[in-house]
Amino acid sequence: MIALILVVATFPMRLALAMAGAERSGLTAREVTGSVWAGELVEARLGALPLGNVQASLSPLALLGGNVELGFVRSDARLGELAGRLHGSDPRGVSGLVGATSLSGGLGVVPVDSLRFEGVEARFDDRGRCIAAGGRIQLAVGTSIAGLDLARGLSGPLRCVDGRAQAALTSQSGMERLSLSFDGSGAYRARFAIAADDPALAAALTAIGFRAGDGGFVLVASGRF
How far is C-alpha 30 from the chain's CA centre? Predict the structure, then answer.
């Protein structure tokens, strides 16, 4: 038993992740060092979300069962703190996610700069359907939109809706709303609506691609994280 524990404790993190199929869960890194107890993932990414350099450890019990359950933490003065758990199966996804990450490229035409997570969980079955979701997401808009001040971003809860994880986000004023939904493959749909009674604001929104629709002027985007 002691010999088995020693083998597991010193098993390379790089090999363990490869054997457990971490890439199928969207987890990649430029370099992986250390053991399953104390590893480091350099320039790690979860799909399109950059995690940076994170300290990580795998659950040995999950690993022996052929599953990935990776606890990770980032302490970075420049990028900020980020921590959570990645589940490779039964069901796959993330849990206990706290902290922030940038969102390179935004959400298509929706100019998103970063995401902040507050106890976020998003778990999916083998068909990619959402079976558990919770916590809150805050979305920061990196640029001014038609003169609107969205520096404080939009925030709201995450839950499962019709087999997809969905966040209904609103600004402090309640005049700006964004619905963001995604499935287990990372395919997302975003609908950004801004209430605009002022003709000048309406014209400015139209000029940058918004269209008059339900709930105001609407910008719709889809893609993959």
Answer: 19
* Full 3-state SS string of the chain: CHHHHHHHHHCEHHHHHHHHCHHHHCEECCEEEEECCCEEEEEEEECCEEEEEEEEEECHHHHHCCCCEEEEEECCCCCCCEEEEEECCCCEEEEEEEEEEECCCCECCECEEEEEEEEEEEEECCCCCEEEEEEEEEEEECCCECCECCCCCEEEEEEEECCEEEEEEECCCCCEEEEEEECCCCEEEEEEEECCCCHHHHHHHHHCCCEEECCEEEEEEEEEC
- pTM confidence score: 0.82
* pLDDT tens, residue by residue, 142-187: 666 766 777 778 999 999 999 999 999 998 888 889 999 999 888 8
**In the chain, where the domains are located:** 1-89, 91-225
